[in-house]
Write a structure and sequence with these properties.
Elements: H1 17-22, H2 25-29, H3 32-69, H4 74-122, H5 125-130, H6 133-175, H7 178-225, H8 227-233, H9 236-288, H10 294-311, H11 314-335, E1 357-367, E2 370-380, E3 385-390, H12 396-403, E4 411-416, E5 419-420, H13 426-431, E6 433-436, H14 447-452, H15 460-469, H16 473-478, H17 496-510, E7 514-518, H18 526-540, E8 544-548, E9 560-565, E10 568-573, H19 575-581, H20 584-604
Parallel strand pairs: 3-8, 3-9, 6-7, 7-8
Antiparallel strand pairs: 1-2, 1-4, 4-5, 9-10
Length: 605
């Protein structure tokens, strides 16, 4: 479809980091009051932090003055108390900022995860059939974590540095010669540029190192998994050499990675050393000339060291933010995936009175070059049962998917009680129908949870009654935990027949006007099938029913049978009439009866 774009987990070269950062803003807006309060605490913490060197300067100045006057008690004691108070205040406001922002961070993760999950549910079946579930789940987890990481680093690393820079700049520019501001902020600019450049350079070695490590690990494990094959062909040395070659590349990149981080650390230390030396040179010169006091000398150096301490983590913060923005980009691209099937702006709820279903000249293709249905027209009268049979790939199950509007028709119309399914809301459309699919997938929850999934407000008595009608109740009662038995991932603890009984019970419990059975007895043996057929007959009584069947014995009571071949209806009529016609249906019937007789003869032997 034109609105569909295949999702890919590959990184985009045109990734817009600033656009992705802006996409975070709505998640902060909900707690804007708390965010502003946290930012206020951040500013107060930095004011206290910057105030510490100022108090230290006053202490040095007053100690210098007071020594000459032999007065060492009043002013220095007050300044010492102020020094301690500022230290405590800085820590207090930092912790308050953390406490206030924690809820913002985790609520943002919660909102983003739910928004993404909702979006995934809104995407069409085509997307979910083409997706890689592992990649999607990883992008979902990494995307939410990256949001937390970005907020964390921005709030606790980037923003505090910017606030501190601003405060220090204001003091230096207003109180001291421009040369000190030039040296400090020039050193910082060189430090940041150097850190970013080396971090980008060394990232290549780190990524290559990780890649080769994973490859070597995979080769080693694979050779052990295929132990017998290795031994059969005597290729132990081949496997060792292959793994050793990959480990050699890993070793080379690991050494380069370590050398690059050593270069980064030395370069950062050298920039700090040069900055401090220049500051000391100019400050000492001004102290000697009498333009600055000893306290000013201490203050300027303290500012330089105080600014460089958080910058020591800049390389790590930069790398983590780059990785987080990459992870965030995958999630943003996922959220930009356009739903193929959408309600029209003026869509109204489907109103089902009689339950008539009509396909009118329907054409459909999953890919343009491979049409599935050609000019399919039929009507299921209210309360009647229509069956569709045909070879695999004839387009039978596609009819159910179109009726549920998992896809839109390429041509023609589908009506329910005269309402085009494309003009009603998807929710009301699916509420009006129940289905027993060919492959029943269950949640890894209790049997009770899976049964009640059809109607969340159903009483326990109603659920048990539906289970009885589906010939499921006696089986459930035989289990140690009864209805509280956990069915395992995708229902793997149940047999195919047991899962289909669950699906039938759910269809009965939902009480829809329209029922669809998509090869609903395909996983049952002949004995179980006969027991279930009665349940299906009871479930479909007074319902409009579409039965997609492989076993013709299950649809002999249908009011009308359509025979499909390569997406076209080639025969239609009641069971007996089709047998008398001696066409495709009669041939299928004869073939299946022959196979059934073989099975019975084998069982008797």
């Amino acid at each position: 479809m034109s609105g569909h774009h295949r999702y890919t987990a590959a990184p985009s070269a045109n990734r817009n980091d600033w656009s992705n950062i802006r996409s975070l803003m709505p998640y902060l807006w909900e707690y804007r009051g708390r965010v502003l309060l946290a930012l206020s605490c951040l500013i107060l913490a930095k004011v206290a932090n910057v105030g510490v060197p100022l108090i230290l300067k006053s202490l040095v100045d007053h100690l210098e003055i007071d020594v000459s006057k032999n007065i060492l008690v009043i002013l220095p004691a007050a300044l010492l108390l102020s020094y301690g108070a500022l230290k405590i205040s800085s820590s207090l406001f930092n912790e308050l900022r953390d406490v206030l922002f924690t809820r913002v961070r985790y609520r943002a993760m919660r909102r983003l995860t739910l928004r993404t999950l909702e979006h995934l549910h809104n995407l069409a079946l085509r997307f979910h059939l083409e997706r890689k579930m592992g990649a999607i789940s990883q992008d979902l987890a990494r995307g939410a974590a990256s949001l937390s990481t970005l907020l964390n680093y921005f709030t606790f690393s980037i923003l505090p540095i910017l606030v501190e820079f601003s405060l220090v700049a204001a003091i230096l520019i207003s109180q001291y010669d421009a040369v000190f501001s030039f040296i400090i902020f020039g050193s910082v600019a060189v430090y940041v540029a150097f850190t970013f450049a080396v971090s980008n350079w060394r990232m290549e070695y780190r990524l290559a190192m990780n890649r080769y490590h994973s490859q070597a690990n995979n080769e080693a494990i694979e050779s052990l998994i295929n132990y017998e094959t290795v031994k059969y062909f005597g290729n132990e040395s081949l496997e060792l050499n292959r793994c050793d070659e990959t480990l050699g590349k890993w070793e080379q990149n690991a050494v380069l990675s370590q050398a690059s981080i050593s270069a980064l650390n030395f370069g950062q230390a050298a920039i700090i050393a040069v900055g401090v030396t220049l500051i000391m040179f100019f400050a000492a010169d001004e102290v000697i000339s009498g333009e600055m006091g000893i306290g000013d000398f201490v203050l300027v150096n303290a500012f330089l060291i105080q600014i460089f301490i958080p910058l020591g983590f800049l390389g790590m913060v930069y790398r983590q933010m780059k990785h987080s923005l990459t992870d965030m980009d995958q999630l943003v691209k996922l959220l930009e995936e356009v739903p193929e099937i959408k309600d029209q702006p003026d869509a109204k709820p489907l109103i089902v009175t009689k339950g008539e279903v009509r396909f009118e000249h329907v054409a459909f293709s999953y890919q343009t070059e491979r049409p599935i249905l050609h000019d399919v027209s039929f009507t299921i009268e209210p309360g009647k049962k229509l069956a569709v049979v045909g070879a695999s790939g004839a387009g039978k199950s596609t009819l159910a998917r179109l009726l549920f509007r998992f896809y839109d028709v390429s041509g023609g119309h589908i009506f329910i009680d005269g309402q085009d399914v494309r003009e009603v809301t998807q929710e009301s459309l699916r509420d009006s129908m129940g289905i027993v699919p060919q492959d029943t997938v269950l949640f890894n929850e209790s049997l009770y949870y899976n049964l009640s999934y059809a109607r969340r407000d159903a009483t326990r008595e109603e659920i048990i009654e539906a289970a009885k009608q589906a010939q499921l109740h006696s089986f459930v009662e035989s289990l140690p935990d009864g209805y509280d038995t956990t069915v395992g991932e995708r229902g793997l603890k149940l047999s195919g027949g047991e899962k289909q009984r669950v699906a039938i019970a759910r269809a009965i419990l939902k009480r829809p006007k329209i029922l669809i059975f998509d090869e609903a007895t395909s996983a049952l043996d002949s004995h179980s099938e006969q027991a279930i057929l009665t349940a299906l007959k009871n479930a479909s009584a007074e319902h409009t029913t579409l039965v997609i069947a492989h076993r013709l014995s299950t649809i002999v009571d249908a009011d009308k049978i359509l025979v499909m071949d390569q997406g076209r209806i080639v025969e239609q009529g009641a069971h007996q009439a089709l047998l008398e016609h001696k066409g495709v249906y009669a041939d299928l019937w004869a073939l299946q009866q022959k196979e059934r007789n073989k099975v019975i003869a084998t069982d008797n032997d």
